[in-house]
Amino acid sequence: MQVPSTVILAEDALGDDGMSKTAYGLLRYAPESVLAVIDSRNAGRDCAEVTGIGKGIPVVPSLIACLDLNPKRLVIGVATAGGVLPNGWRGQIKTALENGMEVVSGMHGLLAEDPELALLAGRCGGRITDLRKSPDDLPVAFCKAQNVTAGVVLTVGTDCNAGKMTASLEMLREAERRGIRSAFCATGQTGIAIAGRGIAVDHTVSDFTAGAAEKLVLDEGADESVRLIFVEGQGALCQPSYSGVTLALLHGSCPDAMVLCHRATQARVMHVEWRMPPLTEHIALYDAAMRLVKPGCRVKAVALNTRGLEEQPARRMIEAAERQTGLPATDPVRFGAGPLLDALLVNGLLPKQPLYAGPES
After folding, report:
1. What pTM value is reported for the model?
2. ∠ at Cα 211 (354, 282), nearest 5°?
3. Are 221 and 229 in contact (CB under 8 A)?
4. 3-class secondary structure for 55-70?
């Protein structure tokens, strides 16, 4: 996909990879499309100085400061609590629309439904793309994702912001490096911004969330040359704020295997501040959630996010995860996704797992 030249809006958030995860995702997986990042606090610096990625991409104080680069779209690079647009950003968005640019937003509040912004876009030739806008024809799920010939892998997490999208994309890269034709199902705004398609499942009506996951797998699996489908996970079963969407993805995508994602240094569950359960408890929970849908589906490997650790402590954390779980583990960004893919494949293929057949009569 040819991505138009992009400016990322990450005001006051560029140093926080959780808050500005859309910005980080684009900087890591589509840096060739990014002209500049807006963050007045870090203006004048190179993006890599602030984030560790995006070398050569300037940080600027405003959109006006980089209009001479001829940007085509402004991407809101920050995920706020509840997906609400900060009031101070409207000026940057209006400037983009006034200059005929596309504004790409992953906020829950749909910008296209904002009368002032919609009017401005229509008058000046700009365009608003709401990544979280759901399709109108989503189905209810009926385990149809089982029908694809490709092996389906779902990333699951110990919490939000554990690296599920990143692990999915790193495994996709590794599979393609090995010549395995693969596909990625984006289920959140950042993944959609990178892939150019997908469904933000956290914005769907609850009855159709599993159906959205099913539709994504069926669409990607329609090409029978695709051998692996990586589904981007969301939330976590132990995260009470977002566990509903996690369960819907599990049952809607009908995965053949799961990869558990975890921030290596995280000691508490976000929002509720509970003690983070051991990795073995998370694995048992996910395996149990699939038992009455696809009993052969298991967590096969652990993807650790070791950001912020030096190399040797990071490697020790990975070794500890392997000892604790008995599963292969790695940080796919720092050390490559090879061990994760090796754990999934048998003779170069991911074995298809059958659906639950019901109790024995």
Report:
1. 0.92
2. 60
3. yes
4. CCCEEECCCHHHHHHC
> Is residue 204 within 8 Å of 250, Cβ to Cβ?
no
- Taking the CA atoms of residue 301, residue 186, residue 139 and residue 108 in that order, the dihedral angle to the nearest 10 degrees is 120
Cα gap 310→312, rounded to integer Å: 6
Measured distance CA(211)–CA(333) in Å, rounded: 31
Cβ neighbours of residue 182 under 8 Å, at least 6 residues apart?
172, 175, 176, 226, 227, 228, 229, 230
Spell out a b/e string for 157-191, using b for 16 or more CB atoms within 10 Å of the CB, else e. Answer: bbbbbbbbbbbbbbbbbbbeeeebebbbbbbbbbb
Those residues whose C-beta lies under 8 Å from the C-beta of residue 177, and which sit 6 or more positions away, are none
**What is the arrangement of strands in the sheet containing 127-130, beginning at the earlier edge strand?**
59-60, 34-38, 6-9, 73-76, 102-105, 127-130
Q: What are the angstrom distances between the C-alpha of 147 and each of 123, 217, 225, 313, 320? A: 47, 10, 14, 43, 37
Phi, psi of 108, deg, nearest 5: -65, -40
Cα atoms in the Cβ-side hemisphere of radius 13 Å centred on 79:
22
- Matching residue, tokens 């990869």: 259
**What is the sign of the dihedral through the CA atoms of 234, 188, 185 and 7?**
negative
Are 37 and 57 in contact, with CB atoms under 8 Å apart?
yes
Q: How far is CA 224 from CA 147, 178, 215, 247, in A?
A: 11, 18, 16, 27
Residues 126 and 34: their CA atoms lie apart, in Å, by 19
pLDDT of the chain, 361 residues: tens digit per residue: 455 699 999 998 898 776 788 999 999 999 999 999 999 999 999 999 999 999 999 999 999 999 999 999 999 998 776 667 777 889 999 999 999 999 999 988 899 999 999 999 999 999 999 999 989 889 999 999 999 999 999 999 999 999 999 999 999 999 999 999 999 999 999 999 999 999 999 889 999 999 999 999 999 999 999 999 999 999 999 999 999 999 999 999 999 999 999 999 999 999 899 999 999 999 999 999 999 999 999 999 999 999 999 999 999 999 999 999 999 999 999 999 999 999 999 988 899 999 998 886 4
Residue ranges in the chain assigned as alpha helix (H): 21-29, 47-51, 90-98, 115-124, 164-177, 189-195, 209-221, 243-253, 279-291, 311-325, 332-335, 338-344
